[in-house]
Amino acid sequence: MAISIDTVYQRVLALANKEQRGYITPQEFNLLAGKAQLDIFNQYFHDYKTAILSPGNQTKSSDDADLIREKISLHRKYGVFNTDAFGVGVLSNQVHWLESIYKASNTNRVVEITMDSASLEVNSTISIPMFGASAPLMAAIQMNFNVAFQTTTPPAAGNETIIVVLTETETNASIALKFAHALNTFSSFHSATVNGGTVTVTYLQDIDWTISESVEHNAGVVVTVLTEGEPSSHVVYEEVSLEDSHYIRSNKKLSPTKSSRGVFYKNGGGTLGNGMKVSVIPNPGVATLGCNFIKKLNNPSWGYIVVGEKALYNPSNSTDFGLHPAEESNLTNKILELAGIVVNKPGLSEVILRNQAVKEAKENR
């Protein structure tokens, strides 16, 4: 839940005007709010470094490191970016701190099986590969179309085949439903969804596909491969400096490989509107990579409309604070501290700094 920009502004005004210390305009508040939020946010990383070096607390809500991790976790995001033929990619301009870059294993094989009840033949069969836990053990998920309808049967002991027996008078939609039900019920290696008379089957393992799906004696069943799903390793790229990347590439033992480990280094800024550049080694070519990062904070803004020479809050034109709700008090104090300089009232800053010191002393007992 975001911290309301209006709530903080009204508190700041109330505290600043106590004892007639001065009025803070909306423009001044917005400038101070952005700086206060960024100061608190950047302090997280320094505080976390200190917290993990100190003795912890078994109670999660009382452990300093856990508390800071909780606050930072709100800003952790996942994203993707594309590399060019030279292995260079440009990150989103929303990246504040880059945490990791990796290449996920390829998408599992996906096939589409379209049924057509009008073309079904007696005892016709459809089969697709099924790999067991001890890959590359292979058997078939088999679908038989028979005159007499029977219940769907699970694989017998030592037999990896699933048989779905149907009557030839059923609709393609009902056949698709029964086939998908058989896969989802009896196979731990597939997942199936249905849309009308079409079943989309996803293989839940990365294996070298040497045997294709087949349709026997039935022109009314069409199998379409949507995704090949070739196997690949999950590669995590380690960040190095540009200088170290040269030494790593020149050393046979340290040289990165496509299948096990890779490295990347930051390579300056991207084009206007984009974030930093990164160079990935070994060169993945034109590829899509994943990244985990800390997202930039949106600039807070107290929006308003002027009515009778008075600024009134306009929520549709405002941006709330992006910090953890626990930071509401710290935000108010920080803005008031900065406001003491703006309104040329050093006493205001002194009061806030003294209150903050007392608060921190109680927390550190």
Key terms:
single chain; 365 residues; alpha+beta; Immunoglobulin-like; 3 domains; seven-stranded mixed beta sheet; four-stranded antiparallel beta sheet; 7 helices
Q: How would you portray this structure in words?
A:
By secondary structure, the chain is of the alpha+beta class. It is 29% helix and 28% strand. The longest helix has 26 residues. The protein is extended, with a radius of gyration of 31 Å. The two termini are 29 Å apart.
As laid out across the biggest beta sheet, the strand order is 1-15-3-12-13-14-2
Q: Please, how many domains? A: 3
- In DSSP terms (H or I, runs of 4 or more residues), the helix count works out at 7
Which H/E pattern describes the elements?
A: HHHEEEEEEEHEEEEEHEEEEEHH
**Cα separation of the termini:** 29 Å
Mean pLDDT: 76
- Secondary structure: helix percent: 25-40%
Which consecutive residue ranges, at least 5 long each, have pLDDT under 50? 131-139, 146-159
| CATH fold topology of the largest domain | Immunoglobulin-like
- The assigned CATH architecture of the largest domain is Sandwich
Provide the CATH top-level class of the largest domain. Mainly Beta
